[in-house]
TrEMBL record:
This is NAD(P)/FAD-dependent oxidoreductase. The keyword Zinc does not apply. One of its GO terms (molecular function) is oxidoreductase activity. PANTHER family: FAD_NAD(P)-BINDING DOMAIN-CONTAINING PROTEIN-RELATED, L-ORNITHINE N(5)-MONOOXYGENASE-RELATED. Keywords: Oxidoreductase. It is an enzyme of class 1 (oxidoreductase). The keyword Isomerase does not apply. It holds the Pfam family Pyr_redox_3. SUPFAM superfamilies: FAD/NAD(P)-binding domain. Signal peptide: none annotated.
Length: 494
């Protein structure tokens, strides 16, 4: 579709978050004036962009899918990237959301107009206004590439795992992989057979446990198709197990040694070299950083044609990389597996609120929001996958659907009461976040002795949700109008 001059609700991003919200709005009102803009040429978000070899989800697909759009077509309990991407495209078509998406349209700026109670928005396809603006750009949408000295002088090929260069042939090459996080553990085992040698640069080791993945037999898929309640029951069972796991991992520290025993046994089985095992054994409490799921990562690092460097990378030369001990490693290609920028989302630099400051300026490196969804001083702005909504145990889709209910209720409240603007009271937001940070103090993410991307520039955990996901859903079950200042035409009410 074409970009309109005005829209009631503009959603930025057409991944799980944006499409989930749009689908919820359209279920209430198929004629709702809602438009999504997507900077890429298709929907799908991170599952469209991340196409590196071996890319898969580390949450069971029974849970990592929309509750309103079950599928019996998954090939494995942990779905691969092409399947999730295909699933999202099918959901877009089936729900009508796809007809509301303006593709190849990137947000450039959004400025709140206090007098008109509108957002003035500039995109790569032109300008428009919107009554409500939803930032659904995700936490894993902008790759982070460290600026190592000499990187611009490197004569070989470089790329980030999130923007995989499929045109580049890795056969026979010497490859440096920078990072040992969730993407590296998936793609490194896939490329070692092609490469002459792979050198993996590790800053901090991670706890790795087996991934209980299996293929779904035809009889199980047929059951899901003929008896949808069976698939719903499996989803509920997986959800319950994951909630118990989350409680154990984050709060019940007395059970953590059991998880650590599993991880250490997995390491002993797959890595025979005791020196390498020492390099791969973390010195922090399991669960403090994201646990990695893999059945072949550790054994891959034990291969003769793979080296693990645990002194980090300090610089790049014309034909190699230099580690923390000053040793140069000759390589042909550098692949960055260095993650994203969840505590510094780029979209925050593009949104200017009531005071004239951008969201990034107001946050100053430490994001906070009310219920992870609204920010005082930014009327009619809603965040999907906002601060303190990330999980270490379950599916973010569950959180996104909870937010979609809340935002949809807020939009309906505005229509029902004839409101032009809603702005969460600052005192309410501050008190809410005090409670969140108080709960996080008791969790393994805060006191587990590690440095993780959960902790922002101010030393706050502005990423994780501290407790059960059903608590979050209950909090966002209904829009709490009393905690917002509302504006009508020519009048303001508290």
């Amino acid at each position: 579709m074409k970009l309109p001059e005005h829209v009631e609700t503009l959603i930025v991003g057409a991944g799980f978050a944006g499409m989930g919200l749009a689908a919820r709005v359209l279920r209430d009102d198929p004629a709702a004036d809602v438009v999504l803009i997507e900077r890429a040429a298709d929907v799908g978000g991170t599952w469209r962009d991340n196409t590196y070899p071996g890319c898969a989800c580390d949450v069971p697909t029974a849970l990592y899918s929309y509750s309103f759009a079950p599928s019996a077509d998954w090939s494995h309990t942990f779905a691969r990237q092409p399947e999730i991407y295909a699933y999202l495209k099918k959901v877009a078509a089936d729900t009508g959301v796809g007809d509301r998406v303006v593709l190849n349209c990137e947000l450039e700026a959004a400025i709140w107009d206090e007098g008109m109670s509108l957002w003035h928005i500039q995109t790569s396809q032109g300008a428009l206004t919107a009554k409500a603006l939803v930032a659904a750009t995700g936490a894993l949408s902008t790759p982070k590439v460290p600026d190592f000295p000499g990187l611009d002088q490197f004569s070989g090929t470089t790329f980030h795992s999130a923007t995989w260069n499929h045109e580049h042939d890795l056969r026979g090459e010497r490859i440096a992989v920078i990072g040992t996080g969730a993407s590296a553990v998936q793609f490194v085992p896939e490329i070692v057979e092609e490469a002459t040698h792979v050198t993996v640069f590790q800053r901090t080791p991670a706890w790795v446990i087996p991934r209980a993945d299996r293929s779904l037999p035809p009889i199980q898929k047929a059951l899901y198709t003929k008896v949808p309640a069976a698939q719903k029951a499996v989803r509920g069972t997986v959800y319950g197990f994951r909630e118990a796991l989350g409680a154990a991992m984050s709060h019940a520290t007395w059970v953590l040694p059991a998880f650590e025993m599993v991880a250490k046994a997995h390491l002993r089985r797959q890595v025979k070299d005791p020196g390498l095992r020492r390099k791969l054994t973390p010195d922090f409490t399991i669960g403090c950083k994201r646990m990695l799921l893999s059945n072949d990562w550790l054994r891959t690092l034990d291969r003769a044609d793979v080296s693990l460097v645990d002194s980090g990378l300090v610089s790049v030369t014309e034909d190699g990389v230099v580690d923390g001990h000053g040793i140069e490693h000759k390589v042909d290609t550098i692949i960055f597996a260095t993650g994203f920028t969840p505590t510094e989302p780029p979209v925050a630099h593009l949104i200017t609120g009531r005071s004239g400051a951008t969201l990034a300026e107001q946050w100053n490196g430490s994001p906070s929001a009310y219920k992870g969804t609204t920010v005082s001083g930014f009327p009619n702005l809603f965040l999907m996958y906002g601060p303190n909504t990330n999980l270490g145990h379950s599916s973010i889709v569950y959180m996104l659907e909870s937010q979609a209910e809340y935002v949809n209720d807020a939009l309906n409240t505005m229509k029902r009461e004839g409101l032009d603007a809603l702005d969460v009271n600052e005192s309410v937001q501050v008190q809410y976040n005090k409670g969140i940070q108080h709960e996080l103090k008791r969790t393994v993410w805060n006191k587990g002795g590690c440095s993780s991307w959960y902790i922002d520039a101010e030393g706050r955990n502005s990423v994780q949700w501290p407790t059960f996901t059903f608590t979050f859903r209950s909090l966002l079950g209904n829009f709490d109008r009393e905690n917002y200042s509302a504006r009508k035409i020519e009048s303001v009410e508290a």
